Amino acid sequence: MKIRFGVLMLCVLLMCLFFVTSQAYTSFENLSSERVVGVKVGDWFEYKLTSLLNTNDPSRRWPGAWGPQEIVECRIEVEGVLGTNVTFILSARTIDGTWINASQWIDVRTGQSNPPNVFMAIAANLSTVSVYEDPAFENVVINYTTTGYYGENFRDVNVVLLESLTVQHFGGIPYTRFESRWDKITGMKVEHIYRIDDVENETSYYHAEQRIQLTRTNAWSKKEWKVGVDVGDWWKYGNITLKLDISDPNATPSIFQPFFLANETDWQTFNVTEVSGRNVTLKTIVHFKNQTEISETIQFDIANGTSVGFILIVPNLKVGEFISIDGPPILYEKSYSSTGVTRRVCVFNASEQINDGSASGSIIYDLVWDKFSGILLAVDEHVNITNGSAYYRLDFHMNVVETNLWGLHAHIINVNDQQFTVTTFSNASISNMALSIEEKALIFNFKGFEGTIGYCNITVPKTLLSCDSHSGWQLYIDENPITDFLVTDNDTHTSIYFTYTLSSHQVKLVGQQIIPEFLNWHSLTLLIITISVAIALRKIGKPAGKSSRRSIVSSTLIDTPNLNPKFFKDSRQANASGYS
Q1: pLDDT for 492-503, tens place per residue?
Q2: What is the pTM of this model?
Q3: CA of 482: how far to CAs of 269, 291, 342, 443, 471, in Å?
Q4: Domains in the chain, ordered, with CATH?
Q5: Which residues does residue 383 pair with via DSSP β-bridges, in sequence order?
Q6: What pLDDT, in 10s, does the model give residues 140-162?
Q7: How far is 316 from 308, CA to CA, in rounded Å?
Q8: Is 342 exposed, middle or buried (0-12, 13-18, 19+ CB in 10 A)?
């Protein structure tokens, strides 16, 4: 159990940061209270329903005003709109698979409806006013506006919350807790919770609860959850440090335990092994300071990153956008240096108060994500807890120290038992570096977040590929010639620097001379093959018994002891490593 926890310890550390943040972001707006309909004919909304009844009093049953307990899903479609009156067609499915169809209407101005107590819609764009103008609802005021994930996207919703220690009624609906949420722009209900908790004495109890939640709709667009990494991408965390200052080592709070395991960690890597839609599979390796290692495979939905502590989030988020369905929003952007490359990053920081009755304090944390890939670049946590005269202070840090998504990388080219090193420095991912003998070219993939400007500096040894002058170099991106690039060199190497709008590209760098020894043997091989073909063609049609002086030359050329058979084997290997 400890081993598995060790593999995921960084994920767990991050996951525990976000238990309460989703409740901390609400806002009020003072918009017009004019009552208008926010939906149109053809709009549809699908809901899931969950119901719970728990009581030891057989005489108390399900609240009939809540509707049938057996309904598990329903669909509502707007059939007509006239003034402030909206007509719906409702289809509901019971737990046994039976579908029930009905028609409803509601006046979003007054709240009058048929059947009564239908609160599926209110007027659009209301602020902190009564949900309906009818005097019966004058005390039912929108408490606040918040943001929630409904109908597969984030929406601003108006919330009414009513609570009581005894059973009350809202428009005939009994409750001890009544919470209803309507989409602000359309006015349609996105969620409601009806609950009754009634304890008459120590031995009698009654609990009933119904939750309706919007799952899908055509009234607004579906959020696209993109993944900013591909199979083969990897990143490595290091600089994992822990500073602990406690008054009593024997009374350490349990919240500190994951950090102690983190303090035993030297580094941890994450490698992308599969991406399918918004689902990602990572292989993680934890290397401990005692030189042992453990590994684990992690699968998660990018829209629900809580399970992996937000190691990876959606790319290209803007300030105010949420990092996941249940996660906090991005607070601001800034420039940040990661492995020597300046990156644009998204930042979230917050302070959470801790108070369990005996101990109190706070956790302050800062998280930094790369904007264009979504990987977590750095974490800083500061925990300060006091319990009477005892105190516990902790500072934790980790950050990305290596990745193949950007930075300085060495690419090894093997040709004819020779090894050449080509280096690249880029703010994008450089992969699949290969040598094309026929084209006298280096070919590689150049990939980054679409629409951003990428740069690359590639340094090539002259013993591998060279030109007589700077103007001799040619650069192609996706087979299109590029003329705006910079060439510098010294006695041993040539460097080419270029910029280009990123997405996924193939780059080809063409020189004039390529590995002299290999080129000479390669040319001789082609010459031998050409002569052999010519001789074979010449022999066709010659009378039997006639000799050919040229065929003897050909035989001599082919059998010459200067041609080592090993060369042909090495040539095939070299060509196999290049592009065809």
Answers
A1: 999 999 999 998
A2: 0.74
A3: 37, 48, 25, 14, 12
A4: 40-217 (2.40.360), 225-403 (2.40.360), 406-580 (no CATH)
A5: 363, 394
A6: 899 999 999 999 999 999 999 99
A7: 19
A8: exposed
